[in-house]
Amino acid sequence: MITARAAATFEPVGRSVATARSFVRDTLQGWGYADIIDDAVVLTSELVTNAVVHAGTSAEVLCLRGDDHVRIEVSDRYPEREIPLQSSAINMGSPDREGGRGLQLCAALAGRWGVDYSATHKQVWFQIDLPERSVGTRAAGPVLPIDLLPLADERVRVAVVQIDKTGAITAWNEDAEHLFGYAADLVMGKPLTDLAAWPHTPGTSTGIADALQLSRWEGSYGIRSASGRVNPVYASHLRVRDTDGDPSTVCLLVRDHERAVLQTPLRLPSPDSGGHSDSQGADPFEVFIGSPAPDDLDGLLQRTVERARDMLDADSAFLLLATDDETELEVRASTGLPSARQRFARVPVEVGPGRYGSARMPAVHEDLDQVPGAVPLLSGTGMRSVVTVPLKVEGRLTGSLGVAAEAPDRYSNEEALRLQFAADRIAMAVESARLGELEKLRRGSLSFLVEASDLLAGTLDRDQTLALMAQMTVPTLATWCAVYMIADQASDPYLSYVLHEDEDRIDGLKALLSKIAPPDPVPTPGARVWPAPAEAAHQAALRTSMRSLGLGEPASVSSGIGTTLATASAVGGETVVLPLVARNRVIGMLTLGKPTDEHFRQEILELAEDLSRRAALALDNARLYSERMAISQSLQRSLLPPELPHVPGVEVEVIYRAAGEGNEVGGDFYDLFPIRDGAYGFAIGDVCGTGPEAAAVTGLARHALRLLAREGFGGPAVLERLNAAILDEGARSRFLTLLYGELWPQEDGSAVLKMVCAGHPLPLRLRQNGSVEPFAEPQPLLGVMDDLELYEQTMTLDPGDVLLCVTDGITERREGTRMLGDDGLAEVLSGCTGLTAGAVAARIMRAVERFAADAPSDDMAILAMRVPGIQHD
After folding, report:
1. Whole-Å CA distances, 744 to 375, 645, 733, 748, 758
2. What are the tens digits of pLDDT across the range 643-677?
3. Angle at 450 (CA atoms; ends 445, 454), nearest 5 degrees
4. What pLDDT score was predicted for residue 95?
5. Mean pLDDT across the chain
6. Is 653 exposed, middle or buried (0-12, 13-18, 19+ CB in 10 A)?
7. Could you say which of 160, 508, 624, 705 is the most buried, measured as most Cβ atoms within 10 Å of its Cβ?
8. PAS domain: which residues (predicted)?
9. Do 4 and 65 meet the contact criterion of CB atoms below 8 Å apart?
10. What is the DSSP code string of 281-308?
11. Secondary structure of 612-681 in the HEC alphabet?
């Protein structure tokens, strides 16, 4: 009877063999069958190697759990290859040969095995019987003296947290409430990632979300408590599924120093296995690290410090990696110490007294109280004795490994030699993993910068550029960021944008930064530490705490101790400032911050510096664009006529739409202005083309019309002189169609008009009976011929009549092969009887817009005038 199953598929690449081994090991460990793991892993490794390496196909691994056995099936897509059957007497060759060795191992280690074929697959399977065990026994240790037992609090609290398939918390017991300060109703339904302080580096390592997907996981991280502090915990995760088949993860959490409650005992060769060749040739690296070794650098370093601490029965351990020039050591892993406070902190190798001055040699400090500052990493931690050894590869310093204890005189040269032996075994693996991480980081950084450049280049809006820069920074590079901008060289920096990965912290962070002086705008490239935010946050938290205890002056308005402490925790780590330099001028500063006691790693700062250069140029481009747009819009607005005058006895309405984004004026123009007492000039025209070049001619035409009309020239003389002015522009001259007229309102409610229509669409008159007719005759356009002979026509608008004047952007509106045209415009106008001038203009524009789905490609202008007649009381 099958009681559980697990399956996975592995691609035909070399690394799949190691991944398959880990899959089988994790599966059997999760089922509680550690006794058979070694045999099962060996057989799986051989069979998967045959599939993905020798046969070159993908491999499917299926683990089946029965009542008294485990069956593992390995399938590949190479059925043609001949495999001897279990009952066959075929000689499978020497054990030293690679071919056939997996089947020999199956015959030797498995209780049963066999081969099944199908048209597309070949399946090799083996079955291992489960050993009989005493009920309830999985592992046991010897009786130890009381003083050698692990140290724990008076009551050990085990937080039980269950996470559903989406990563949200579904269970939170009383011990979890006590350890972390959150009541269950405050965290239920929230992602565990909101609380977990998981060391994160772009492009590397395994995150908390990934760990929750594994069948089993064990290790250290931090949980942010309600007070804002990070509590180091040791966790054991087990992936389960309910009766409906939905997966979830059960997490058991204890204080990090009580890890012995959950920690799986280290698997070492048993004393009685000395007769086996496998134990004689055991890899010292695997003996120290355990098998399988973590496949990521952070996991490997964390496992190393944990094993080093256990090996020397220490209270803490730490590991630092050297920079490329070997001048500094960077903290990368620790246990038993406030790791979040120390992570990525840097210390010099050859400067200062004691341990770091002799990093290239093993060193033992019997009592740190006698040599204060000898090991800066341990200052204030209560550690007294410490032993450190170098990690070297081919004679080059690559790191340093240390263990420490709270009691003095715990270590001697003997422990130093043991630790050095272990360090020599793992140095090459650590260096290889470090180089792999750097390569991943470089690839990730390149991808990050390419994406950042694309996003920044996609906008010329300053506010959007600021938001993009902040969102790319948080949380990839920092926990929070602030951008200070400088308007000009004589101005002081001002806070322009603030972002935190927790939106609830943004207001508190902004308030805190507003109360402190901005950083100095130093143009020197690179990141520099800015301690002011952390100091201000700690002082604010201290004052709030004292007020809550009645020890300080009461605040008139209190934001609450929780908010202040949370802000202090969010800003209490390392803060760095990078200048935003564009075109040899500092235009602002990018400020990046970490939460309490965290540090930036150098690779992240270099990536941030590269981003700041790109962002500075994008911000400056946005500034230049905004300035030029403001100038352009100001000039364009100057070309538009001022507010239309009131014409007694005549309703006037104008609608104007310039084509092109950002254009307020184009090639179409209009005007209405008083000429003399009782007389008004009006015009509507269209310059060939659109955009700024056409707008320049509209300005010339509009101002010339006003000037000439007020000098007493009649319509033909005005247009003839305007024609000469346009031709004088030479190569910059443009064709111009123009309808110009003069309007005289009459006492009887009518209006007399004198008009000249120079190549422009003819004006239309709408009578009260709904008839529509052209109201002028066509004449030559302007800007073509030197000698024009124009004449004006005198017309009368009766009470209730409407005069509609438009540009060709209205009549030439197209939808495919259809065009609105003069007839279409006349048809729309005929339905406007009885409407005011404003209503007529609005209905015409609405009809034009609805005629086609696309945005208009030409400027459009509508001038509507209506003579309502004499109003009687």
Report:
1. 98, 14, 33, 12, 21
2. 788 999 999 999 988 776 655 566 788 899 999 88
3. 145
4. 37
5. 79
6. middle
7. 705
8. 154-190
9. yes
10. T--HHHHHH-SSPPSSHHHHHHHHHHHH
11. HHHHHHHHHHHHHHHHHHHHHHHHHHHHCCCCCCCCCCCEEEEEEECCCCCCCCCCEEEEEEEEECCEEE
| Residue whose pair of structure tokens reads 């906008």 in the numeric block | 459
Tokens representing 565?
């402490």
pLDDT of residue 636: 62
What six digits make up the tokens of 151?
């140290």
Residue 460 exposure: Cα atoms within 13 Å on the Cβ side: 9
Smallest CA-to-CA distance from 663 within 627, 699, 635 is with 635
First vs last C-alpha separation in the chain: 103
Identify the pLDDT of residue 93: 44
Show the low-confidence residues of the chain (pLDDT under 50).
81-100, 200-205, 267-283, 340-341, 351-357, 555-562, 872-873
CA distance 184 to 161: 10
Q: Give the residue carrying structure tokens 């650098």.
A: 297
Distance CA 710, CA 523 (A): 59
pLDDT computed for residue 551 by the predictor:
59
Locus of tokens 């201000």? 536
Strand-by-strand arrangement of the 216-224 sheet: 169-172, 159-164, 247-255, 230-241, 216-224, 196-197
Q: Let me know: does 562 contact 545? Beta carbons within 8 Å.
A: no
Q: Which residue has the tokens 């290889």?
A: 432
And the tokens for 144?
């130890």
Long-range contacts (CB closer than 8 Å, 24 or more residues apart) made by 214-217:
214/26, 214/239, 215/6, 215/26, 215/27, 215/30, 215/239, 216/26, 216/29, 216/30
Task: State the helix-helix crossing angle for 837-851 and 821-830, rounded to 10 degrees.
Answer: 140
∠ CA 652-655-657 to the nearest 5 degrees? 160
CA-based angle 534:535:537, to the nearest 5?
65
Residues 6 or more apart whose CB falls under 8 angstroms from that of 868 comprise: 649, 651, 749, 799, 800
CB of 77 closer than 8 Å to CB of 47: no
In this prediction, residue 118 carries a pLDDT of: 75
Edge-first strand listing for the sheet containing 575-582? 494-500, 480-485, 585-593, 575-582, 528-529
60 DSSP β-pair partners: 9, 75
Instruction: State both tokens at 605.
Output: 């700062």
- Tell me, what amino acid is at 271? P
Q: Contact 374/357 with Cβ under 8 angstroms?
A: no
Q: Residue 172's beta-bridge partner residues?
A: 161
CB 634 within 8 A of CB 730: no
What count of residues does the chain have?
873
pTM above 0.70, yes or no: no
Q: What is the pLDDT of residues 772-818, one digit of tens each?
A: 999 899 999 998 888 888 999 999 999 999 999 999 889 988 888 88
- The angle at the Cα of 52, spanning 50 to 54, to the nearest 5 degrees, equals 50
What kind and span of H or E run contains 129?
Answer: strand 122-129
Alpha helices (H) in 458-560, listed in sequence order: 462-473, 506-514, 532-548
Query: What is the residue whose two structure tokens read 């905004």?
Result: 626
Please name every residue paired with 61 in a beta bridge, in sequence order, or none if there are none. Answer: 8, 74
Q: Which two tokens stand for residue 693?
A: 């070049």
Residue 432: CA count within 13 A, CB half-sphere: 8
163, 237, 713 from 721: Cα distances, Å: 84, 90, 10
The amino acid present at 530, given as its one-letter code, is W
Dist CA 600 CA 348 (whole Å): 16
* Residue 178 host element (H or E): helix 174-180
pLDDT score of 210: 76
242, 147 in Cβ contact below 8 A? no
Question: Smallest Cα–Cα separation from 236: which of 222, 254, 248, 258?
Answer: 254
